[in-house]
């Protein structure tokens, strides 16, 4: 077997498991010590059988108070000596069946003759004890009388108990030599056995008994050539352990004071409540973690490195009464396997906050730190010596544990339940004794009774099942090795162990048994002559003289050395005062120049000692400050990580003045501030990288650890790299990611624009468009607006590219349909703009180009898109003029309607709807009065447009200015005609007026003339019809004038609509029924 010792740091140590393992692990013998040798390696694990035995008696039932060692487990005799003497009338039928956990189930059938024999014995016993009236004690009583006197149920119950008590030892004969003592358990229910016996007069029952477990080694004899790796933590190191103990003793001398004006800092003591829950993969809150919860926990921040990594950093700055919530990840070395690698959400409530008011650490505290010591140096030496001894013991203990753990993994064995429960009760009893003896907690009788209850024991067994099982496996494996290798303890080793035990007992002032030491005296009598005696005396005298001479020479040499020492002491004193910057010594140096050399040395020694101590303290102060400066400088330069320790600095002992120390402190404060600023920048960069990686769907951990491994989330904040290279690389990484984000956003927006165009081109339904909402929703977003995780992922862009390619291919297959659709769009634009084109020729041209294949489809669509864009621009430029044309046309229609209305003689009749026509006529007259101004404004707009575009403004192929000129001419003609008609009417009506005047009578309505004129063309009441122009007839009329040399007028009179009412003669006379007639002109271009 090979041993390899390595050192590892485990910040979260399992103290409970360690205590259990160290206290109660091996029980190889009953002499209080277990030994095992592997190739010269001696494993030693002392135990205290007396304490464990007492503890086992305090714990409830189940083991009967019997201790049984796991490693030295021996089969109890299954058959008692009385079994052979008590022979049964008939043989039992026993069936043996293997059961789990190294146990055997025995199915026992008791013959009727055996049951009857037991029944008679029970009756005999009752006859001896019962005092039946009419029968003398001890005399035989008839069966029916004794059964009736005692009671049949009691007789049956006693008979079944007798059968079990008598037959059980015989049934156990089949497991003789392998059954464990006190592990028998009757499985069958007693009421059922009682019921079966009362009916059948026979009895059957089942028994489960634990047997000696069988070990299986994997590999066989693997313990002979195994290699063991021993991990040693920092707490084992003697130097660090000494520093911790000294620090703890020093802290115990300080008074705790309440912090009121700041938050938690390193060195404080906080009383906190801790609660924790797991975090599932989807980020939701999981179950509570009972092992991580604590109420009123006294948290010493200087011991924070023993807790979960990052816990202390997360609560720094918390104040009393505040609460903080944060998430941490349990390390892979966590004691509880189920929590390893688990992310958890912690909530910490700070109840109280204290700081220690520590006294000055000097020699005056030596006796308080360690009774019996006078100086701090003596305290350190004593603690160092103790810690070195503890280190050796810890190494031996760790080696023993490693060997036992290794051999445990090599064995496969089923642990009997009875053995497990007994060992568990022993461990639990030892735990109670440890708590009671520790002095930290004194248990009351009620508390001890509660903890000793069966419920508490069972809960302990369940929670510590794995630990107890592992220890039992180790013990069984060791016992099997002893058996296989025929190992024995040597006398020397046992004697050495006894001596060590005696030393330990004396050290702890405990009683012990020690065998008496027999005194052996050897008397040798030697007879010599006088001559030989004188010769011996002379030789002795000569030797004495030689010794005297040597003593004188040594005294002279000593004097010279003392003088040299005195001179060196004075020089050292001067050098120390100079290096420390002290001009004069504070306590002064007694003047002993007239005394002896030793007196002079004694006078200067205290001052020199004090200066040496002051120098050592000053050197340590310089070393600490320079180490911190060197460490922070190394972190900034990048040559040293926060977890690495710098080389010890070289302190210039020639200048240890306070002025120089203050300068180092100032330099350290500047570096600490620079480190804080750099750390803030690093965290800002890391946060930006995290957000960018989330948007770009990149692995944040991989990206940030490529810059520096310490930038991951699990590393504590203070441990992150702050070097110039790290900041530079982080800045470059942020710029690279931002450029990548811009490029991806631009590419995604281009693809989204193409998708929208293709969708609109091919009339893609909304259902298909909704599938790419995540692509098109950022079509107009800026770079800063895109913050959703995964919004610019490569897969998303690839998906959009694939969709664009698919739509391009689909567009090629539907080229004619798409081209005609664009042509229809172009025609619709021109139609709305009243621009005349030839659609048939354009469609034929498109068809010929596609069929011939002489042009690329994309070029054709691009050309059509250009035409559409040009048409839209032209439509926009014509919009102002067309809007005014529409108003003019509406006014003309109202004018036409008003003329028809004025010609209606029944317009004032009381017919239905007449009042509506009156209101419309009133509005129409106002609108008609504005027509001249509309025409003037429209003409000005048209001329301005034509000057700007250097072309004539055509309306459905007809120049609009020509149309307006013709409209003006026709309007003037109409006005002239109206004036002529009015004058003619005046002439015709003059005789009637005179006659009416002469006879003073009113003219008859029948005499009222009816205009012979009729409006040309047919118009509806509401002014409907072709909206091209209200003067289409005038346009055509003007054309007919040029062709025929005259204007045709219709003399036919139209029938009056039924909803018109009559008007007065004056209104009829003022109305002019002149209107041009025209055919309908197609509005299509």
UniProtKB/TrEMBL annotation:
GO molecular function, one term: microtubule binding
A GO cellular-component term linked to this record: nucleus
Keywords: Chaperone, Coiled coil, Cytoplasm, Cytoskeleton, Isomerase, Microtubule, Nucleus, Phosphoprotein, Rotamase
UniProt-listed Enzyme Commission number(s): 5.2.1.8
Reaction(s) this enzyme catalyzes, per UniProt: [protein]-peptidylproline (omega=180) = [protein]-peptidylproline (omega=0)
Spans traversing the lipid bilayer: none
Region (Disordered): 60-82, 975-1085
Biased composition (Basic and acidic residues): 975-995, 1041-1051
Function description: Involved in protein export. Acts as a chaperone by maintaining the newly synthesized protein in an open conformation. Functions as a peptidyl-prolyl cis-trans isomerase.
Listed name of the protein: peptidylprolyl isomerase
Species, as recorded: Brassica napus
